[in-house]
Specification:
Elements lengths: L2 E4 H8 L4 H8 L3 H10 L9 H6 L21 E4 L9 H12 L14 H12 L8 E3 L6 E4 L4 H17 L3 E3 L6 E4 L2 E15 L4 H21 L13 E13 L17 E3 L10 H77 L6 H20 L2 H10 L8
Length: 405
């Protein structure tokens, strides 16, 4: 629901509690709330304000400045829920419920390792390394994994922790019908675990150093012989290289928030080891994002259906407008023809009157007599065509002015 505040009310709120908490109450991001305050020239607490206040240190409240004298500012501020959020308030609430542990458990957490994890590890043990030294498994009955053989032990720990976190929140990890996926209230989110490569400084290999030495020797020989060297063909030794060093990452399927646009922002889909924070500690966070993705996918279908109905309605309105325009054009053509025929009748009537006046009291030659008879017959025929019954027949034959138009 849209909230309407004055500048003074918003100023009081942002100095009463932290922006993150206030933004959550309004259902928008703290960045969006900060932008809103800046737009309406509402000062906000500086960094460290709430820490000082928590330790009973003196803090200064920046007073609310007056509205700009040029009248560009507004004292009425509209706050729309969802502003600045990648996901809807419902998806954000579902995510926070899982993170906070308030999502009720719907299944018991098994004491032993998940059977899907066991099947994945058994297949990994039989896999052969590829050219990069990585083993991989995929397909029905296993979780898609790509990692070095030395990382397989930790892969099992991460997958087991993830399966337990999912089970504790009522989320099912299944791979019966193809690639592994989480199942949440009828929605599915695919998942895979990969060992990602790190960008590290490249150490030149003996072969690279030898190739460089041969090239430099040839350049030196050319300088001695010709007085100069071309400098072309220097062997390239890269400065950086990608190396697998045991850093694991969980990748979820790409889910975009399509409430407002068919190409909305993408939700976070990759969770990787970073510094001291390891995947083993991210199980609940990943499951929370899976639940938010499930809510978002359901909302996306509703939004797609809404856009489909809107597109159909717009197409229907365009077709109706085109039909009405074509019908109006046909009516206008018919009207123009009737006006022309009406003027012709009037002209013939005036001509017949003038002709009778001219021929009155004189002997009418044979040809002129036949001409006068033809003109009168033509006038009668045109009048008959302008009669209501004849006009009804003409309009009916052209499909004009029917009841269902």
């Amino acid at each position: 629901m849209t909230t309407v505040l004055t500048r003074a009310e918003l100023h009081a709120l942002v100095w009463e509690r932290p922006m993150t908490k206030l933004a959550a109450e309004f259902g928008l991001s703290s960045t969006a709330l900060q932008t809103l305050c800046k737009k309406h020239e509402v000062p906000t607490p500086p960094c460290g304000h709430w820490m000082k206040k928590a330790h009973n240190k003196p803090v200064r409240v920046i007073p609310l400045p007056p509205r700009p004298s040029d009248g560009t500012g507004s004292d009425r501020i509209l706050i729309h829920p969802g502003l600045g959020l990648a996901v809807s308030p419902a998806a954000a609430a579902a995510r926070e419920a899982v993170r906070a542990g308030t999502e009720p458990m719907t299944v018991s957490v098994p004491a032993s390792r998940d059977r899907l994890v066991d099947a994945t590890l058994a297949k990994l043990a039989k896999a052969k390394p590829d050219a990069q030294g990585l083993v991989s498994v995929r397909g029905a009955g296993v979780i898609q994994v790509t990692a070095r053989p030395v990382s397989v032990g930790r892969v099992g720990v991460v997958l087991d922790d993830l399966a337990r976190a999912a089970a504790s929140r009522g989320v099912v990890l299944d791979a019966r019908e193809g690639s592994a996926r989480f199942e949440v209230e009828g929605e599915t989110v695919t998942v895979e675990l990969v060992e990602v490569a790190d960008k590290v400084a490249h150490t030149a290999t003996p072969a690279e150093l030898q190739a460089l030495a041969v090239w430099e020797a040839k350049q030196e020989a050319d300088r001695k012989r010709y007085g100069h060297a071309s400098g072309w063909g220097r062997p390239h030794i890269p400065k950086w290289e990608e190396r697998h060093q045991g850093r694991l990452a969980v990748r979820l399927e790409e889910v975009r928030v399509r409430r407002d646009s068919p190409w909305g922002p993408a939700m976070r889909r990759t969770y990787a080891d970073h510094g001291r924070r390891k995947l083993e500690a991210m199980g609940v966070t990943i499951v929370a994002e899976v639940v938010a993705m499930a809510v978002t996918k359901r909302e996306n279908r509703d939004a797609d259906e809404r856009r489909r109905r809107e597109a159909e309605e717009q197409a229907r309105r365009r077709a109706e407008a085109e039909r009405r325009a074509a019908l109006e054009k046909r009516r206008s053509v018919a009207l123009d023809e009737l006006i022309v025929e009406h003027e012709r009748v009037r002209q013939l009537e005036r001509y017949v009157i003038a002709l009778d006046a001219t021929l009155a009291g004189t002997e009418i030659p044979p040809r002129v007599g036949r001409f006068v008879c033809w003109v009168r017959a033509r006038l009668d025929r045109l009048k008959a065509e302008m009669a209501p019954a004849a006009l009804e027949t003409r309009l009916e034959s052209r499909g004009l002015f029917a009841e269902d138009e």
